[in-house]
Amino acid sequence: MLLIPCPICGIRPEAEFTYAGEAHIARPAEPASLDDHAWGEFLYARTNPKGDHAERWRHTHGCGRFFNAVRNTHTDRFITSYLAGTARPHGTPSAASPDAPAMRNDTEQWGQA
Amino acid sequence: MKHFSAARLLREAVRGQSGWTEHWRSPDRPAPAYDAVIVGAGGHGLATAYYLAKQHGITRVAVLEKGWLGGGNTGRNTTIIRSNYLMAESAALYDHAVKLWEGLSRELNYNVMFSPRGVMMLAHTVHDVQVAKRHVYANQLAGIDNDWLSPAQAQAYCPPLRLDAGMRYPVLGAALQRRGGTARHDAVAWGYARAASALGVDIVQNCEVTGIRRDASGAICGVDTTRGAVSARRVGVVAAGHTSVVMAQAGVRMPIESYPLQALVSEPVKPCFPCVVMSNTIHAYISQSDKGELVIGAGTDAYTSYSQQGGLHIATHTLDAICELFPQFRRMRMLRNWGGIVDVTPDRSPIIGKTPVPGLYVNCGWGTGGFKATPGSGHVFAHTMAHDAPHPINAPFALDRFRTGQLIDEAAAAAVAH
Amino acid sequence: MSLRFSFDGRSYLGEPGDTLASALLANGVRLLGRSFKYHRPRGLLAAGSEEPNALVEVDRGYGARTPNLRATQVEVYDGLVARSQNRFPSLGFDLQAVNDLAAPLLSAGFYYKTFMAPRGAWAKLYEPLIRRAAGLGRAPDVADPDHYASRYAHCDVLVIGSGPAGLAAAVAASAGGARVILCDEQPRFGGSLLADRSARIDGLAAPDWVAAQVGVLASRPEVTLLTRTTAFGWYPDNMVGLAQRLTDHLPEPDPTLPRERLWQVRAKQVVIAAGAIERPLVFPGNDRPGVMLADAARTFAVRYNAAPGQRAVIATTSDTAYRAALDLQACGVEVALIADARLRADGPLPAAARAAGIRVETGMRVLATRGRRGIRVAIMGRIDLDGRVRNREWVRCSLLGMSGGWTPSLHLFSQSRGELRFDPASETFLPGASAAAERSAGSCRGVHGLDDALADGAMAGSAAAHDSGFDAALPAPCHVEGAAQAGWTSPVPARRKQRRAFVDFQNDVTSKDLLLATQEGFHSIEHVKRYTTTGMATDQGKTSNMNALSIVAAELGRPVPAVGLTTFRPPYTPVTFGTLAGYSRGVLFDPVRTTPVHGWAAAHKAVFEDVGLWKRARYFPRGDEDMHQAVARECRTVRSAVGLFDASTLGKIEIIGADAAEFMNRMYVNAWTKLAPGRCRYGLMLGENGFLMDDGVAGRLAPDRFHVTTTTGGAPRVLAQMEDYLQTEWPELQVWLTSVTEQWAVLAVQGPRARDVLAPLVDGMDIEAAAMPHMSVAVGSIVGVPMRLFRVSFTGELGFEVNVPAGHAQAVWEAVHARVEALGGCVYGTEAMHVLRAEKGYIIVGQESDGTATLGDLGLGWAIAKAKRDFVGKRSLDRADMTAVGRRQLVGLLTADPACVLDEGAQLTEAAAAPVGTRSLGHVTSSYGEATLGHSIALAMLADGRARLGETVYAQRPEGAMPVRVVDPVFLDPKGVRLNA
What we know:
CATH architecture of the domain at 149-276 and 408-481 in chain C: 3-Layer(bba) Sandwich
Number of helices of chain C: 22
Distance between the termini of chain A: 46 Å
Helix content of chain A: under 10%
CATH superfamily of the domain at 149-276 and 408-481 in chain C: FAD/NAD(P)-binding domain
Number of domains of chain A: 1
Shape of chain C: elongated
Low-confidence stretches of chain A: 95-113
Strand order of the largest sheet of chain A: 3-4-5-6
Mean pLDDT of chain A: 84
Radius of gyration of chain C: 38 Å
Structural class of chain A: mainly beta
Radius of gyration of chain A: 15 Å
Largest interface: B-C, 116 and 115 residues
Largest sheet of chain C: 7 strands, mixed
Oligomer: heterotrimer
Number of helices of chain A: 1
Order of helices and strands of chain A: EEEHEEE
Strand content of chain A: 25-35%
Largest sheet of chain A: 4 strands, antiparallel
CATH class of chain A: Alpha Beta
CATH topology of the domain at 149-276 and 408-481 in chain C: FAD/NAD(P)-binding domain
Number of strands of chain A: 6
Helix content of chain C: 10-25%
CATH architecture of chain A: 2-Layer Sandwich
Shape of chain A: globular
Strand content of chain C: 25-35%
Mean pLDDT of chain C: 95
CATH topology of chain A: Folate-binding fold
CATH class of the domain at 149-276 and 408-481 in chain C: Alpha Beta
Number of strands of chain C: 51
CATH superfamily of chain A: Folate-binding superfamily
């Protein structure tokens, strides 16, 4: 059972958390503008590196917050964790993909039904 | 390759075993060029090489293995074989494999100990019953044996099964595939290695692929390894657990995540368990090996990892489930507990076929249940590599389905793993 | 006080502190077991948990029978009943010993080379025979009557092993107040000190010094002392699993005590003081009873006062065996000869042996042994460089003590992912760089000799305390006198060509088997292990792995590290399943969720079904009704009068905030902006992959407040998906989500008289159709209890869902139930609910849909708000396959025989005849017998179903195909007259 550093609550055992996959795969701002290939990549393609991996966890049985963490998938050691919506901290080695842009903050694009 | 037989065993017994030779050649390094390179000498990769040589006449084949052959999931799994999948595409694929299993020992002249002792999948809730019966009827229509058993019939087939109404999840029935069973995992790798080697295939162990080479047109032209470069126009990646890592060398991002999967065995005891029993609701499966060990497995750990080391809570939860189903086994003891790495796809079905890179083929994503497919997987993947086009059986399992949405979602459809 | 016990039906006496092994040895019993493959007679090899041979069954007589226990670990108590295993008819005369004669046929991996013909013969003929021959003990066959406990613990320093290094570590680590846990697999602390008859530490005899140290530890409040406790596995982030045995050693255990306890210890620092295991020598006949590890023989004699033989030969390649010889001699055993395979032996111990008058020969080995069921003669000799035997000599003996050096126990260190380092001098692996917060101390890291081990342990303990944040002055070094000063000498390789020299005793793997494996191309040690099964027995190679590795490395002409070392897997020694499962059994296996009216339902004879963790009332039989009769009555009552149903398991989420409607717009396919407060809508939620994920009615209580319901099973998944998008994709939205599933109990009142039931109870609220039309919601009270009243229907009837705080549910339920009964209604369960909704063509997510169904497939495409630019899953709907021709669509089915009830899951085909390979057109998703419509009904997912309305297809059944007419899935009141009443 891993010990996981929740950026809000501190270190807690894995049983309190839910894993939520690779981090920094932001939902496209305009899904309709993506072709099938790009949308398929968004839905399904994952870096899945052997090494440092930026990933999402939710402290389900704690503060309830989703957050990001960098963990080495070979040793299962956590290197850092940080709040959702913030960029991967500098200095944490990136396995493959460059840091994703920070969260969008535009609500106007949403059509009103 | 000298033929294995009882007569030969007898002859060698008399002459002090001096006539046995190596099961496969172990070249120190790969040749500079091959017609096809297989990355990964697990069961699927070795089977692919064997069928390339045997059925397609492509014998200039190298199987490159980072560690020792059969040392990945082939040598770590709980060896369950069945084909009673719900989706027609899956059932066809796995039944293709079961048919090959049935003749495999003789085909390879290596006793892989395929033992069709029956695979029984328990239903504990009304919903389980609905799902199980849907499987049974779909399988029967497709000509795949699968029978619905009442609780009493299930117990008659598997006497250790407990039908106590006081159980947290009582047994409401079971689906039984009599042709399903187990096989000896190491023998599968060794048998394919021996047969492939005899046909001219080079199996190079301790030889890690460090790069995948593409020519100016973008097509595959070879691989770099820790034991030298190899040129080849066809490269098949069959590196379960590490598919994403290998495919990244060709610049292909895969719809795959790698999870730890644990299994365990008990100390060996005299025969006490006649078949394979799986329970999806309770999350466990169990059989007894020829040696007498209870072989037990469950689902994956919750997070992606290449550590091959899962949490104790996963093993204990698995044993909770086994002890709940079979309380007589509480006094049995866990002898060995280990982990492997499984590639999991979004629809829990494998990917077998071409990739966006010409000459690069991939066979992966078998999740927790790839062993059962070994012969069929190798057979259709060899066809795909030989013809640069999929066999009809693996055509639906193309990488492209994640673009079109034509998923083969066994998991979502049936919530049955393994 | 002597203890009476039995072995194979014969009664013996033992002494307190005895193990079964020592007690049998003291009684002159040398034959304790039979080997796995050849059924060779076997005695004790070792004195501890590494014992491969002496496996027994212990039977407590009340269904508590345990196979495969090591006699060296079974503590003798008064009344102990033990039996040997894997022999027939008796241990002394075992028919399967005939295997030994066939040994040349049963060489390594023989089974891979035969039993292949004819096809199918393996499974039918050979495998059953092999299975019967294999296996060790008998599995228990009745439910285990004992129970098990489990506990989590945190500590600063966990010390594993209580030999000199471990004890010193624990004392040093706890001196400054650190929380220390000391565990040892044996019943007493002290390890090798318990068998030390010469050393004096700080002026005390070794066992007395141990007692003093344990006293010090016991006086420290932060120290936890655990004997009979094996640290069996290392898990991520310094979690160590301990298995503690609590009652197996007691003659009549209190039945309330757990038999064993699992500890999951999270330690800041760990000191591994696991010791070392002596290595056997590999020579022909090295498995004969009476041949044992030299230090085991010494331990039996010194610690247990059990003479392992009368006349001993000691064969060794290391100095420690001289100590064994000296101690055996001191205990009254005649030591005939020490044969040291090394050419020189001139350390202090060999000198002492010579001084004690023991004959010492160097360059001498064991060539063979003789004796039926026990050694009588050791054939000794010297071997020339050219391989010729010289000085052959027969030495009469009843004990042959052997020592091939010591193998440090690296299991836990290796599991902690520490790097192993090969030490060529001692031909052992030692701990290299650590990967976890641990340190090894004492002989498990190659530090031997009592004073060195004590100092090493103290240093490790004090450093561990320091690293976990405590002051830790290094204690003054112990003053040690009289300890055996062991030289540490390189093992001498076994001879290459020899007959039947055993490497893995339990699995009967000989050096010849290993050579055969290398001859056959198995060059990785993992391959050799799997091909020969060496190291795969219940001792997991504790005494065999290093010998196997040396033999293979020598044969391949490679250094040992190049051949590799097999992975150390947990557990260190086998751990009881029950211990790992702990409390998790029966109702504690999975929590049971019940609704606030569960007790009422149980009292009214409800039959329950499991739905996820919930227990739901499936039907309420009256008199001797069966399920079908009860369900039909419940359905008719709802259609004709009124029914009351407990819908409390529905998931409920309250969505609050200025952006609540916007959030709903994004999460659901429906349009929410214009939904007026007081109105409800049937919401459909997709996954981002475009497939239906969940459904449920959402009521708008206020512009900024929605009360959303989910399916019973889907509630956690839906809330998690909502939280995910809200927190990570749209954190700017002013929305708060609260699960209120447990807070609101839900009473569904359905039927033509539903309004009449509620009207007098709702404290003056207007619930007439004008005020409360179908799909509306109002806040009020019922019998004085606050209420959210939904006018919704999952039956097709006029219906209400009364939401009340869970604590008041029983009272409200009883009040409503009284009205229902008064108006000729009844309670109904989930089965009737399923029938009623199916008659109306309402789907159940997970039954009609299965994770591969789109809204279009289910005929629910109308719900999608086309004007919305985006919602979760929208983009996926445009993918080619989502709108392809031939997708399976929801339809109703009417069987040609109206009494026929199709099986759910039945397959649909074009024609009645369905030869193997016939394409399935779809399957029956729901099917119910006649309830209120005069005929059975079914729902199905059928390829291009909506285009087939009116056609006949065939449902395949074991008893023959049934023609079915494809109809609209709404069987009842398609215009909704009843619904809107």
